[in-house]
Task: inverse folding
């Protein structure tokens, strides 16, 4: 069937072109139809490589379908569909085009069967998504977008160099298991790691996402980091290092999240925390763990999208997003409040919500494989994520002290998008078999046994109890207008300072140097001139121009005489 | 604001009711530990009240550590912008003829 050969990114790119030239309802219709049609098409596509050709003696496979890529393909369609509905009211053509291109690039990346195609989409992800940040059109968003772009491009370049080394080492560009062998393995690992927000390389995410537009952040939260998780699951399953990296990723962001004031930045930190669970799953690498990582990525796209949408709704309606400025919004935004709580319950992995059925797989796998300390860290992170994303976000936005803001619920397209996401969160939580049937492996896992439910509920309720207790005792850190420094401090503060210092220093050194050179030079010329004046007084001293002419005439005349002599 | 409407949590009684329900649920969950025979993977899980205590203590520690982190991480809200703007203005001044001797 010829339709087979159309990779999913093609309809999105065509849609982007149409979105660029249409306006109003027509554009809305086209944008909504594209993920729907593309998803229906993808549903009918069997597994296998559907598009391949030779390029410089290498086999390129821009369209390869298997269970792993399908899983991400499906969820990217869902995410694109929800986010497009959420952004239907946006009139900004730049944003709409960029969003479609970005979603298409994400789909292109997960269906890439070779490293070169992956690299192309990897860079496209960066170049298309940055417009969703710049579209905020503030100085802050511009500089944050620049930093974001630079870091993403560095990741892309590492991937390209790694791919070239890989091709040299193995004679193929096929994108399969790579592993941490050789320089290629490490370069590609670091490239994936930057996009995956590994510790110390994570700051682009918390820097840029909260600066993007209301609707842009919803798109951003779905694709980039999940493409990285997919790539790790494809190329580095069972790499032990990933377990520890992932465990660190689950734990450190929650501390920052507790003291962060910008609620969208709190969500960005919890995004890293959730990706950490997936990275741990990939690192363990057993069938159950990979299933857990992939299904958690699936669920995370939806519930994190829902949370970003609810905070976006708050920002859209009130113009504020700092916890210190908000509060009491449940009074006039009841629908948003409830939808946000559904998202919060899902990310906290309450039984009957989507997070529960996927996160517990990773935790069980960690225990089964004897990673006791990692399991304890994950347990701590589960409690912590409930604390900051599950309680802090809804509490400070919608309850807490009354800020006096009386904003109403957002436009209906935003509510519908949030409602779809919330319905999926609950649907997957109640009936996980639908999700499990899509997973790469069949493990017969059942999350709903009494032990699991009780353990998780106890953990969450007593985390909540801790919050209540701390709040009643006034021990909970208040939301303060502040910036918390993170790794970005090194490149936003230290590096510029060092650079300025270096420039100032080199200017001074150069000044001193050029002064001394000039002095030596003048001294030397003066000295020579002095000498010269002494020895060559006869030829160079104060002769009138007429005598020079005379001597020239004498010389020419002697030439003339010499010619006669011959 | 002229909005004098009473909302559900404006009444402290309702907050109290909600908290009471919550405390009762916590207590019930703790008691369920005796009733439900759990199959465990790890010896720690066998300790009485492992999950509730771990959750509670973990969160308290989390909050205290985070609070302590504020002492060395927290900066004014415009920490980065101030510096970046200052640099921006300096550049601007230079182009506006800072070196102009006639001025």
Result:
């Amino acid at each position: 069937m010829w339709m087979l050969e159309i990779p999913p990114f093609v309809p999105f790119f065509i849609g982007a072109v149409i979105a660029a030239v249409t306006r109003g309802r027509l554009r809305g219709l086209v944008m909504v139809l594209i993920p729907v049609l593309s998803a229906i098409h993808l549903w009918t596509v069997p597994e296998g490589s559907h598009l391949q050709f030779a390029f410089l003696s290498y086999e390129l496979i821009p369209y390869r379908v298997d269970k792993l890529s399908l899983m991400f393909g499906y969820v990217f369609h869902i995410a694109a569909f929800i986010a497009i509905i959420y952004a239907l009211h946006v009139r900004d053509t730049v944003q709409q085009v960029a969003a479609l291109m970005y979603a298409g690039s994400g789909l292109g990346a997960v269906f890439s069967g070779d490293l070169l195609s992956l690299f192309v989409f990897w860079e496209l992800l960066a170049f298309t998504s940055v417009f969703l940040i710049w579209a905020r059109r503030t100085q802050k968003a511009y500089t944050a977008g620049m930093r974001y772009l630079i870091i993403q491009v560095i990741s892309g370049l590492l991937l390209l160099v790694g791919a070239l080394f890989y091709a040299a080492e193995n004679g193929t560009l096929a994108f399969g298991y790579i592993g941490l062998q050789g320089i290629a393995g490490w370069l590609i690992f670091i490239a994936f790691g930057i996009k995956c927000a590994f510790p110390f390389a994570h700051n682009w995410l918390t820097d840029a996402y909260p600066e993007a537009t209301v609707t842009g952040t919803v798109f951003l939260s779905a694709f980039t980091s999940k493409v990285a998780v997919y790539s790790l699951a494809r190329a580095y399953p069972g790499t032990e290092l990933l377990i520890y990296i992932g465990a660190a990723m689950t734990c450190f962001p929650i501390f920052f999240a507790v003291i962060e004031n910008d609620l969208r930045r709190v969500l960005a930190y919890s995004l890293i925390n959730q990706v950490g669970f997936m990275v741990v799953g990939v690192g363990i690498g057993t069938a159950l763990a990979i299933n857990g990582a992939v299904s958690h990525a699936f669920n995370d796209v939806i519930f994190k999208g829902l949370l970003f949408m609810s905070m976006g709704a708050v920002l859209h309606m009130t113009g504020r997003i700092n916890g210190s400025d908000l509060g009491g919004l449940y009074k006039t935004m009841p629908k948003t409040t409830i939808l946000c709580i559904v998202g919060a319950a899902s990310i906290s992995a309450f039984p009957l919500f989507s997070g529960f059925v996927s996160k517990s797989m990773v935790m069980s796998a960690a225990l089964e494989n004897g990673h006791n300390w990692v399991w304890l860290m994950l347990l701590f992170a589960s409690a912590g994520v409930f604390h900051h994303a599950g309680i802090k976000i809804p509490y400070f936005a919608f309850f807490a002290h009354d800020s006096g803001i009386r904003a109403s619920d957002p436009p209906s397209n935003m509510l519908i998008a949030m409602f779809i996401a919330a319905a999926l969160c609950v649907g997957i939580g109640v009936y996980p078999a639908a999700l499990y049937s899509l997973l790469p492996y069949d493990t017969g896992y059942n999350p709903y046994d009494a032990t699991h439910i009780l353990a998780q509920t106890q953990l969450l309720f007593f985390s909540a109890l801790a919050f209540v207790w701390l709040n009643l005792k006034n021990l909970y850190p208040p939301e303060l207008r502040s910036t918390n420094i993170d790794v970005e401090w090194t490149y936003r503060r230290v590096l510029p300072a060092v650079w300025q210092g270096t420039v100032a220093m080199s200017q001074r050194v150069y000044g001193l140097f050029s002064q001394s050179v000039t002095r030596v030079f003048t001294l030397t010329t003066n000295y020579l001139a002095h000498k010269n004046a002494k020895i060559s007084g006869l030829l160079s001293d104060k002769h009138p121009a007429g005598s020079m002419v005379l001597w020239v005439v004498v010389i020419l005349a002697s030439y003339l005489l010499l010619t006669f002599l011959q | 604001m002229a909005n004098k409407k009473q909302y559900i949590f404006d009444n402290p009684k309702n907050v109290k009711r909600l908290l009471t329900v919550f405390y009762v649920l916590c207590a019930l969950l703790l008691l369920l530990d005796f009733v439900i025979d759990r199959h465990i993977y790890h010896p720690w899980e066998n300790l009485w009240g492992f999950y509730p205590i771990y959750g509670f203590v973990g969160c308290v520690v989390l909050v205290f550590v985070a609070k302590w982190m504020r002492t060395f991480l927290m900066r004014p809200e415009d920490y980065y912008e101030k510096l970046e703007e200052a640099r921006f203005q300096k550049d601007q001044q230079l182009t506006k003829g800072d070196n102009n001797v006639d001025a």
